Amino acid sequence: MTFSGSGSGLTPPAVVVKLLLSNTTHLNRPIHALPMCALLLTLSAIAGGCGAARTGVTRTTSVPPTARPVAQDATQDELLERYNAFARGVKSVDSTVELKATSGTKYSGVIQEYHEVKAFLLAARPWNIRVIGQAPVIGTTVFDMASDGQTFEVSIPSKNKFIVGPVALEKQSSKPIENLRPQHLVDALLWPEIRKEETVLFEEYDDDAARDYVLTVLRGGYKTEILRRIWFDRGDLRVSRLEEFGPKGILLSDVRFSDWQPLSGATAGNGTPSAATAQTPDASGTPSEFPRTIRLDRPHDEYRLDLAVTKITLNGPTDAARFKLEQPAGSELVRVGDEDKTPSEDKKP
């Protein structure tokens, strides 16, 4: 709908009003005041819309303000303290999780027969971890993995293989099953503390769906690079995402956290943690809540894991023997990285 004679100086609503008044005069029929006002408003709105189309204004749909989270305010120091309090407070994690691997990734090559695997996960500082995955219902072990931060071991009964290798091994094996790394879960569960001497940048992130604070930790040395990025949901100031970067800005790990729940089970009336319990450590320094949904994405290792935490204990007693993984009798020993050695390296002096 367009209007000609733009030089007349009449806006689209004015044109509509003039046409309406001339029409009512011609018909010589009265129009009651209240219906007249309503009709004028309706036609004016329509005319305004047509005018927008005439001037080339594009209509866009935005998220209603009520759908966006109410943003809380916090300073950089306050966020650093919240993060470090949690990092310091979690010394060990003993949990039961439902583990799901994204189709086509390395873990799915091991658990592809099952939609999900029930896993018993134990991690303790500094780098110890043990993960036992079992098939649902029947409870058969699908994989058993352990690492002490220096070496890792992976037992896969269905393949009759026992895989060992150094954690620092950078080269990927041509066999995806040999690239499983239990230590990748450590940083997702046992966060590294931000030291005072580290350089940290502070910023806000805001769009139609989310409002966040972001802390960016830098790596110094010969060339300054990004080391870690920590996202805080401004709706509740909880950590919602951790990104870890390697040299040259390579994204090593992207972990997302949601569904934070109190460890004690105390919730507010709507089922969410009350403000009094949210991320408040107890007398021992142990955090009072923990995320129940965790997504770990390792883009360069070509896998993604979804963890749904069904049971968890923080800072409980840990026996060193629980991190010990022995090679099952009769299984094939596979030493990852041995294929890179030259014959001379295997010879005794």
Search tags:
349 residues, alpha+beta, 14-stranded mixed sheet, 14 strands, globular, disordered N terminus, outer membrane lipoprotein receptor (LolB), chain A
Topology:
Blueprint: H1 12-27, H2 33-54, H3 76-89, E1 92-101, H4 108-111, E2 117-124, E3 128-134, E4 141-147, E5 151-156, E6 161-166, H5 186-189, E7 200-206, E8 211-219, E9 225-233, E10 239-245, E11 251-262, E12 289-298, E13 303-314, E14 332-335, H6 343-346
Parallel strand pairs: 6-14
Antiparallel strand pairs: 1-2, 1-13, 2-3, 3-4, 4-5, 5-6, 7-8, 8-9, 9-10, 10-11, 11-12, 12-13
Helix pairs in contact: 1-2
Structural commentary:
- The chain has helices at residues 12-27, 33-54, 76-89, 108-111, 186-189, 343-346; strands at 92-101, 117-124, 128-134, 141-147, 151-156, 161-166, 200-206, 211-219, 225-233, 239-245, 251-262, 289-298, 303-314, 332-335.
- By secondary structure, it is of the alpha+beta class.
- The protein folds into 2 domains: 11-54, no CATH class; 76-335, Lipoprotein localisation LolA/LolB/LppX (outer membrane lipoprotein receptor (LolB), chain A, Clam), CATH 2.50.20.10.
- Helix 1 packs across helix 2.
- The longest helix is centred in the first third of the chain and has 22 residues, at 33-54.
- It is globular, with a radius of gyration of 30 Å.
